[in-house]
UniProtKB/TrEMBL annotation:
Domain Mur ligase central: 106-293
PANTHER family xrefs: UDP-N-ACETYLMURAMOYL-TRIPEPTIDE--D-ALANYL-D-ALANINE LIGASE
Name of the protein in question: UDP-N-acetylmuramoyl-tripeptide--D-alanyl-D-alanine ligase
Repressor listed as a keyword: no
InterPro entries named among the record's database cross-references: Mur-like_cat_sf, Mur_ligase_C, Mur_ligase_C_dom_sf, Mur_ligase_cen, Mur_ligase_N, MurCDEF_CellWall_CoF430Synth, MurE/MurF_N, UDP-N-AcMur_synth
Positions of the Mur ligase C-terminal domain: 335-453
Family recorded in the similarity comment: Belongs to the MurCDEF family. MurF subfamily.
Alphabetic keyword roster: ATP-binding, Cell cycle, Cell division, Cell shape, Cell wall biogenesis/degradation, Cytoplasm, Ligase, Nucleotide-binding, Peptidoglycan synthesis
E.C. designation(s): 6.3.2.10
Catalyzed chemical reaction(s): D-alanyl-D-alanine + UDP-N-acetyl-alpha-D-muramoyl-L-alanyl-gamma-D-glutamyl-meso-2,6-diaminopimelate + ATP = UDP-N-acetyl-alpha-D-muramoyl-L-alanyl-gamma-D-glutamyl-meso-2,6-diaminopimeloyl-D-alanyl-D-alanine + ADP + phosphate + H(+)
Name of the gene: murF
Subcellular location: Cytoplasm
Length: 474
């Protein structure tokens, strides 16, 4: 199906097209480009203009550029504009304007991508739904997601993130959502803000893109909920609260057990129960928020509640897998919770609660008694109090239920020192060093959580654990 014609793209961007063309998609990466895509030559670590020739050779319909690259033919299909990113933003805004889709924008310190995928899972069973396939939530990811939106879309879900002040509002105005949801506010990217209230205000600026009849779906339980609600009041938009402190979408009960979450809630439509096929109180909160957002978008929240069980966490965000540690012995395996994509104190608390809910298996492996094992990498961008925040993890209510905690990185050293001797595992300066020791850190029967900020590279430990049952052979 045609997504963009050269005429539509020229009208949206004000650029000049060298020839007529039609595009079925939009791409910024020649490694994943598909035949018929419009290639957008963005400048990042590399200049996208260096890859225009390759994109056209792979079947791109045209390329969005500021000039014709020297290695490209004179008659190549090009859309020439003064600024490629500005033109991509214009395409996104034009795509948003020409659709009648109900649009949900999601932000939050924790859970944006998981909530986006929850929304996609339930909404796509009620209408044609558009959402980014990855965590495209920044200054180029949001317009790219919008520019890829087909005109006949019925529901769209757009994730919006930030690293610094002032980033969310422009992306929200570009998105012009009907409903905006804030999953939670936590100490993430704190080094760019004076305090968590500043983070809350930045998250609340997602409401700036709402129209006169827009709806703000807000977490009632986060400590800065009053900041969010006051911001919504000043914007004069309808507020829908979710959580234990909410009177409308109220979280009544959450039970975690062996990879599942059972949730009871009271809603404006009456009592509601739903089950998630993964464990996590934070996932329960996000699920309830998504149901409230679906209701605000005109979707059926009861059907959505039934379909939430189909959702699974994205890779690296709490996924559970079984890793065989010795293929020669039946049952020689461990349970791996891969939560290595990101971390802050709030998301770590949620992950530790999940780990504590699992029962390890005894009488397998060399240790005989199964253990709950946490392997933790540094939490980054927490600001001047980051060392104390790491040490304070020892006070987490789930820590007493854990048998062993291994740590990687100079920040996690502070937790390592604070741990009781019985729970103190190994510490290494880097995750790579710890990855080299995994055969001694975990054993069959264990339930193992690996969590840390992406920059801590604790995902190397995940990869090493996955390889335990597959020793190198010559």
């Amino acid at each position: 199906m045609t997504l963009w014609t050269s005429g539509d793209a020229v009208a949206a961007t004000g650029g000049t097209s060298t020839t007529k063309w039609t595009a079925n998609g939009v791409s910024i990466d020649t490694r994943t480009i598909k035949e018929g895509d419009l290639f957008v030559a963005l400048k990042a670590e590399r200049d996208g203009h260096d890859f225009v020739k390759m994109a056209l050779e792979k079947g791109a319909a045209a390329a969005l550029v500021t000039h014709k690259p020297d290695d490209v033919a004179d008659d190549a299909p090009l859309l020439v504009v003064p600024d490629v990113l500005v033109a991509l933003e214009a395409l996104g805004q034009a795509a948003r304007a020409r659709t009648k889709a109900k649009v949900l924008a999601i932000t939050g310190s924790v859970g944006k991508t998981s909530a986006k995928e929850m929304a996609r899972t339930v909404l796509q069973r009620q209408g044609k739904t558009h959402a980014a396939e990855a965590s495209y939530n920044n200054h180029w990811g949001v317009p790219l997601t919008l520019a890829r939106m087909p005109q006949d879309t019925e529901f769209a879900v757009i994730e919006i993130g930030m690293s610094n002040p002032g980033e969310i509002a422009p992306l929200s105005r570009m998105t012009h959502p009907d409903v905006a949801m804030i999953t939670t506010v936590a100490a993430a990217h704190l080094e760019a803000f004076d305090d968590i209230t500043g983070i809350a205000r930045e998250k609340a600026s997602i409401l700036d893109g709402l129209g006169n009849h827009g709806v703000a779906v807000l977490n009632a339980d986060t400590e800065t909920s009053a900041v969010l609600q006051n911001y919504a009041s000043r914007r004069e938009v309808e507020q829908v609260l979710f959580g234990q402190m909410s009177r409308s979408w109220k979280l009544e009960h959450v039970a975690l057990s062996e990879g599942q979450t059972m949730v009871q809630a009271d809603t404006p439509n009456g009592p509601l129960m739903f089950k998630l096929s993964t464990a996590g109180r934070h996932f329960a909160m996000n699920g309830l928020g998504i149901l409230a957002a679906c209701d605000a978008m005109g979707a059926d929240p009861v059907q959505a509640a039934m379909d939430l069980g189909l959702w699974q966490p994205p890779a690296g965000r709490g996924t559970l897998e079984t890793v065989t540690t010795d293929p020669a012995n039946v049952g020689e395996s461990l349970a791996l919770l891969d939560d290595a994509f990101n971390a802050n104190p709030t998301s770590l608390t949620a992950a530790l609660e999940v780990l504590a809910s699992y029962t390890p298996r005894d009488n397998v492996g060399r240790v005989v008694k199964g253990r709950r094992v946490a392997i933790l990498g540094d939490m980054l961008e927490l600001g001047p109090h980051e060392m104390a925040m790491h040490a304070d993890v020892v006070k987490d209510p789930s820590v007493p239920a854990l048998h062993l905690i291994h740590c990687a990185g100079p920040r996690m050293r502070h937790l390592y020192v604070a741990l009781p001797n019985a729970q103190r595992g190994e510490w290494a300066e880097t995750a790579q060093e710890l990855a080299g020791q995994v055969s001694q850190l975990v054993d069959a029967g264990d339930v193992v959580l690996v969590k840390g900020s992406k920059g801590s590279k604790v995902s190397l430990v995940v990869d090493a654990i996955r390889k335990l049952g597959h020793p190198d052979t010559l």
